[in-house]
Amino acid sequence: MQIRSTTAQDLDVFVRTFHTALGRFPETPDANGGGLWWSAIEMDRGVVAETAGRTVGTAISYPFELTLPGAVLAPAAGITAVGVLPTHRRQGVLTAMMRYQLGALRESGEFLSVLLATEGGIYGRFGYGLATFTHRMTVQRAHSAFRTQVQAGAIEVLLRSEATEVLEEIYDRYRRTQPGALSRPHRWWALGAGMPPVARAPRFVAVHRDAHGVPDGYATYVLDGGTLTIDETIAADDAVFAALARFALDHDLVTEVVFKHVPTAHPLRLMLADFNAGPTSGDMDWLWVRLLDVPRALTARGWLTDGEIVLDVDDPFLGEHHRYLLTVADGKAECVETTRAPDLSLDVRDLGSIYLGGTAPSTLVRAGHVQAHGSTAKADALFRAERPPHCLHWF
Ligand SMILES: CC(=O)SCCNC(=O)CCNC(=O)[C@H](O)C(C)(C)COP(=O)(O)OP(=O)(O)OC[C@H]1O[C@@H](n2cnc3c(N)ncnc32)[C@H](O)[C@@H]1OP(=O)(O)O
Question: Which of 89, 116, 123 to mutate to test the pocket of ligand 1 (most atoms within 8 A of CB)?
Fold first, then answer.
């Protein structure tokens, strides 16, 4: 088996192989936004696996910016389009592609990689840890009274096709301070590539403006048979979020509102007069994070609490084992190798899980994945983020 990087000439066979892996017909662009996903692909960042002159596996990466705790923007390689032909599964094709791809990313100086998984059991073995979650909330309009006072802001409803620039501007401002958020390249907005709202598929967009007329939030939605479904609500602050939620809940001809992709511990449910009126469902994994260079990754993020901790980190996929002393002072960390006794012994995938502050180290100790040598209070305080990380970009 040979693994090699791709060029633009590989696009057709890449698309065909990936679609065969998924059991779907290759999509061609259409007026409703179908097939546009491929228009954003960057073939100079792909890999293919070949046996006997035949392409049997695919993978690609996007150059994203990931927001780390402390509103730090860091480069992160977003892996996607991973597929292996059904005839070649469980023969190590993905493993070989991952080894090649992670090695190439490291050589090019990347220190973080991220992905969304089709199945939660695949990527932990390659050192990716589950870092963010998403939830769906359904509110019956008849029981949707708020306890929270909502400031009536100026809301304008636009068609998706009219709203590209304003959506891009609002999203870009939001993602710079939200831990776990990914950049959305301008090219994607311009193409309407990907899933809603970066798609040409019909959507209404409620745009909220502040007292000066500056756009500071949006909700993209469709109304179908009494159910108003919001793909994403992006808001400069919680008051704007509340105004957009109220707009949806007060819409005529609506019996229920489905908020897709509500962040973990979001106050929306507590805004309701009756907590039980906002049940969540569809809790699922979202962003997986892989640290490719532990000291660089740990010193890149911002830290809320001063202190020091010794981490014994095992990276079985890359065959590495290091012990680090992490020292945080004034929000900045230093990370050096040490022989001191560790506070935590953990797999690099578990370091990926706690890196953005979405899961406390003590939770992974309780789950039996991380070993604590003493109290976990210090580790929990250190790894905390200013708010739970959240990502709603789909790629
Ligand atoms: C980021 C993204 O793009 S997500 C998209 C992922 N792609 C898909 O879901 C498309 C359909 N599936 C596929 O194409 C393939 O089955 C893949 C890519 C998931 C796996 O490719 P394979 O070449 O079969 O994987 P490979 O043989 O290297 O397996 C490595 C290990 O992962 C395990 N594994 C592979 N797929 C899965 C899975 N879906 N669930 C759980 N474990 C899995 C294997 O059992 C193996 O375990 P082992 O090391 O203990 O023996």
Answer: 89
Place of tokens 């929270």: 148
Strand 287-291 with 129-130, pairing: antiparallel
Beta-sheet pairing, 154-159 with 133-140 = unpaired
- Between CA 363 and CA 295 the distance in angstroms is 23
Identify the structural domains of the chain with CATH numbers, from first to last.
2-110 (3.40.630.30), 135-283 (3.40.630.30), 293-383 (3.30.1050.10)
Contacts of 30 (CB under 8 A, 6+ apart): none
Three-state DSSP class for 95? Answer: helix
Amino acid type, 204: F
Annotated binding residues for acetyl-CoA: 82-84, 90-95, 118-119
Q: Helices (DSSP H) in the chain: which residue ranges?
A: 11-22, 93-107, 164-175, 186-191, 238-249, 268-271, 294-300, 348-355, 361-366, 377-383
Cα separation of 98 and 79, whole Å? Answer: 10
* Residue among 113, 105, 100, 118 at smallest CA distance from 49: 100
So which residues are the catalytic ones? Answer: 123, 395
Whether 76 contacts 60, CB under 8 Å: no
**In whole angstroms, what is the distance from residue 217 CA to residue 234 CA?**
5
**Rounded-to-10 torsion of CA 351, 352, 356, 362:** -40
CA of 22 to the centre of ligand 1 (A): 12
pLDDT tens-digit map of 122-144: 999 999 999 999 999 999 999 99
**Angstrom distance (rounded) from CA 19 to CA 293:** 33
- Among protein residues, the one with the nearest Cα to ligand 1's atom 50 is 125
Q: pTM of the full predicted structure?
A: 0.96
Q: What is the mean pLDDT of residues 276-295?
A: 96
Burial 360-374 (b: 16+ CB within 10 A, else e): bbbebbeeebbebee
Residue 350 and residue 101: Cα distance in Å, rounded? 21
H/E run at residue 287: strand 287-291
Going from the Cα of 90 to the center of ligand 1, the distance in angstroms, rounded, reads: 7
Question: What pLDDT digit, counting tens, does each position of 343-377 carry?
Answer: 999 999 999 999 999 999 999 999 999 999 999 99
